[in-house]
Each structure stands twice: as structure tokens, then as C-alpha cells.
């Protein structure tokens, strides 16, 4: 039972590479390339996503208002009640 977790099987022909955490930079090019890339991706997808979502929101609010109006009682039906 000398095998430890992570060394349970011998896998052949698989090559893995690692880089020391001391040689990595945590946020390389974060402000110079990261934020402009996020802005580019946001503007590219916004005009594909926003119109259908707006249409669905307007349809949903319209349906709720029609439903609320349909639930109301007509006061003219109860004018002569005692």
C-alpha cells in the first residue's frame, strides 16, 4: 500500500509542464490589454443580447399589466346592488 493519492497509476506518454509560481506574474497586462478586451467583448455581444432581452421584458410587463386588468371587477356591474 505504498501508493499515495496522485500516484495511484503509472500513465505513459503523457507530458506535463509546470511553471514555478515564483516565475509567474499575477496580473500581466491587466490594465493595458485586459480592460480594453473586456470592453471590446462587451460591446460586441451587447447588441446581440440586449434587443431580445428588452423585447422579452416589455412582453412580460405587458402580460402582467393585462393580467392585472383582467382580474379587476367592473364597477358598473355592481352599481345597483344593495
Automatic annotation (TrEMBL):
<dbReference type="GO" id="GO:0006122">
    <property type="term" value="P:mitochondrial electron transport, ubiquinol to cytochrome c"/>
</dbReference>
<dbReference type="Pfam" id="PF02939">
    <property type="entry name" value="UcrQ"/>
</dbReference>
<keyword id="KW-0472">Membrane</keyword>
<keyword id="KW-0813">Transport</keyword>
<dbReference type="InterPro" id="IPR036642">
    <property type="entry name" value="Cyt_bc1_su8_sf"/>
</dbReference>
<dbReference type="GO" id="GO:0005743">
    <property type="term" value="C:mitochondrial inner membrane"/>
</dbReference>
<comment type="similarity">
    <text>Belongs to the UQCRQ/QCR8 family.</text>
</comment>
<protein>
    <recommendedName>
        <fullName>Cytochrome b-c1 complex subunit 8</fullName>
    </recommendedName>
</protein>
<comment type="subunit">
    <text>Component of the ubiquinol-cytochrome c oxidoreductase (cytochrome b-c1 complex, complex III, CIII), a multisubunit enzyme composed of 11 subunits. The complex is composed of 3 respiratory subunits cytochrome b, cytochrome c1 and Rieske protein UQCRFS1, 2 core protein subunits UQCRC1/QCR1 and UQCRC2/QCR2, and 6 low-molecular weight protein subunits UQCRH/QCR6, UQCRB/QCR7, UQCRQ/QCR8, UQCR10/QCR9, UQCR11/QCR10 and subunit 9, the cleavage product of Rieske protein UQCRFS1.</text>
</comment>
<comment type="function">
    <text>Component of the ubiquinol-cytochrome c oxidoreductase, a multisubunit transmembrane complex that is part of the mitochondrial electron transport chain which drives oxidative phosphorylation. The complex plays an important role in the uptake of multiple carbon sources present in different host niches.</text>
</comment>
<keyword id="KW-0999">Mitochondrion inner membrane</keyword>
<keyword id="KW-0679">Respiratory chain</keyword>
<keyword id="KW-0249">Electron transport</keyword>
<keyword id="KW-0812">Transmembrane</keyword>
<keyword id="KW-1133">Transmembrane helix</keyword>
<keyword id="KW-0496">Mitochondrion</keyword>
<dbReference type="GO" id="GO:0045275">
    <property type="term" value="C:respiratory chain complex III"/>
</dbReference>
<dbReference type="InterPro" id="IPR004205">
    <property type="entry name" value="Cyt_bc1_su8"/>
</dbReference>
